[in-house]
Amino acid sequence: MTSERSVETARPLDRLARVFVAGSRGLVGSALRRHLVREGFTDVIGPGSAELDLRERGAVLDWFAAMRPDVVVLAAARVGGIRANATQPATFISDNLRIQVNVLDAALEQGVERLLFLGSSCIYPKFADQPIREEALLTGALEPTNDAYAIAKIAGIQQVQAVRRQHGLPWICAMPTNLYGPGDNFHPQHSHVLPSLIRRFHKARQTGARRAVNWGTGTPRREFLHVDDLARACLHLLEHYDANQPVNVGTGTDLTIRETAELVAEVVGYQGTIEWDAEQPDGAPRKLLDISRLTALGWAPRIGLREGLAQTYAWYREHLGSGALRR
């Protein structure tokens, strides 16, 4: 079967459908579950990794056969900041390839009609034209500090597109920009830039430290999207988009890491000096997504960065000392 559906064939999802959110305990997955429940879905499932290890092929195939989900959102992945990606590339590529292949194969075996695969903006070339259009995929070299993770995500996109070509299923891909929000990972070595800054400045404020040192030069530019806005975008795409090309999800605006650090310090209340260790890597010089494909479908972000940071910091303080922060 080789038919290719058009964007216009996408339709609203049945609120009684069984929706499997793979990675439902993580930052993205937990936001998706909250949003789906708010939107009236009554059968949202998502076992944790202790119940179902998505890296174990037999377990995944058996689980799909038993549970038979109608809709799948593949938000499960091993993720981490620049340090984790740079120091554990073999782990990142192995875990993510296995998770993706197992879930996508199981979904195909069970004939899952609607599936959304979530990638990442790191799939694009390091020096892609800005803002980055979806067509930039596979047109240049990747950022070396996270190329293993990026290759795994690119493989996921290719598999989804191959399923569309071979089986005609209306599966789609979305590429989020840098995400943050309640439920983020604040691990001192494995976190992304925003939770890392929140943790660092909070600790400096609590201990009375007069200086806080961040990695890199502070000059790269980054775009940040609140995870609740991503959750809205995911449902919007599932109900309004059906085409082969991936879709960028972001805000369409960016700022330097230095400006980001200053904003986080202001939200946290840290008043000491902010210093930069230029011996550490910066990563890609800029990653701003072109979101015109998504906005043409009627979606727009709602949560501003300052508001989102305040909400995230409040969640962080509420969960200090709990298992929610130890990942």
CATH architecture of the domain at 7-183 and 224-253 and 288-304: 3-Layer(aba) Sandwich
The rough form would be described as: globular
Strand content: 5-15%
Name the CATH class of the domain at 7-183 and 224-253 and 288-304: Alpha Beta
- Tell me about the largest β-sheet: 6 strands, parallel
Low-confidence stretches: 1-6
Give the strand order, joined by hyphens, for the main sheet: 2-1-3-4-5-10
Instruction: Output the number of helix runs.
Output: 10
Please identify the structural class as seen in this structure: alpha/beta
Radius of gyration: 19 Å
Number of separate strands: 13
CATH superfamily of the domain at 7-183 and 224-253 and 288-304: NAD(P)-binding Rossmann-like Domain
Task: Give the terminus-to-terminus CA distance.
Answer: 43 Å
CATH topology of the domain at 7-183 and 224-253 and 288-304: Rossmann fold
Indicate the multimeric state.
Answer: single chain
On the 0 to 100 scale, the average pLDDT is: 93
Q: Can you describe this structure in just a few lines?
A:
With 327 residues, the chain is α/β, with parallel strands linked by helices. The chain has helices spanning 27-38, 57-67, 82-87, 89-109, 147-167, 193-207, 227-240, 257-268, 292-295, 305-319, and strands spanning 18-22, 43-45, 71-74, 114-118, 171-176, 178-180, 211-215, 221-222, 224-226, 247-249, 255-256, 273-277, 286-287.
Structure description:
The structure is a single chain. The chain is 40% helix and 15% strand. With 327 residues, it is an alpha/beta fold. The chain has helices at 27-38, 57-67, 82-87, 89-109, 147-167, 193-207, 227-240, 257-268, 292-295, 305-319, and strands spanning 18-22, 43-45, 71-74, 114-118, 171-176, 178-180, 211-215, 221-222, 224-226, 247-249, 255-256, 273-277, 286-287. Helix 1 (27-38) links the parallel strand 1 and strand 2 (43-45). The N and C termini lie far apart (43 Å). Helix 1 packs across helix 7 (227-240), helix 4 (89-109) packs parallel to helix 5 and helix 6 (193-207) packs across helix 8 (257-268). The strands form 4 sheets. The chain has a 6-stranded parallel β-sheet, sandwiched between helices. Strands 11-8-13 form a 3-stranded mixed β-sheet. The radius of gyration is 19 Å and the shape is globular. It has a domain at 7-183 and 224-253 and 288-304: Rossmann fold.
